[in-house]
């Protein structure tokens, strides 16, 4: 397939680009700084683009089969952030202009405000309050896709804490919700390999199971 990848210079994005190329996809990486992506491949095109400009993005989306976003934005302790919603609104507008239908994006476990009630104490009382600005904007983006993008085939992938390690051969566990629960309703893990998140996101290109849904994932 022909894929446009946003956030390709980030840690998750680089795993995804590498795996996509290994699988034979043609990848256009839309980045803010082309010097930050050191991967080289005959099927990789790297272009500078403003992720907040639908006009710029639409030109690069022409002829693409899908858009995959690994964009991430830093948290702020004392103020809100809007990068997730701002960028997705531009992406969606560009997709409509370019007539691209499929978008896969990643957020996180616990984006819904009450979904962390059964998380471990350190996560619930230290981590989640610290990154609440990120989780809130992720949740706003998820709601935007659900309410405003019925014409698109979107999927939101929600992983737990990200480890900067390659893909494993572990089974991927999924749950339609804000975390993957064990039989007692508690999270089955706290982390996942970035490479496995990339592996799962690419697998969605060949599946209709999670169209217009948010899916929490991890490995066993």
Task: Note down, in words, how this protein is organized.
The chain has helices at residues 11-22, 54-61, 83-98, 121-130, 132-148, 194-203; strands at 2-6, 26-31, 44-48, 66-69, 102-106, 153-158, 161-163, 172-175, 191-193, 213-219. The protein is an alpha/beta fold and 220 residues long. Strands 3-2-1-4-5-6-10-8 form an 8-stranded mixed beta sheet, sandwiched between helices. A two-stranded parallel sheet has the order 7-9. Helix 2 (54-61) crosses helix 3 (83-98) and helix 3 runs parallel beside helix 5. The longest helix has 17 residues, at 132-148.
Concise summary:
33% of the residues lie in helices and 22% in strands. It has 6 helices and 10 strands. Helix 1 crosses helix 6.
Gross geometry: globular
Largest sheet: 8 strands, mixed
Q: How confident overall, as mean pLDDT? A: 97
In which order are the strands of the major sheet placed?
3-2-1-4-5-6-10-8
Number of helices: 6
Rg over CA atoms: 17 Å
Q: Could you estimate the helical fraction of the residues in percent?
A: 25-40%
Alpha-beta content class = alpha/beta
* Uncertain regions spanning at least 5 consecutive residues: none
Secondary-structure element series = EHEEHEHEHHEEEEHE
Strand content: 15-25%
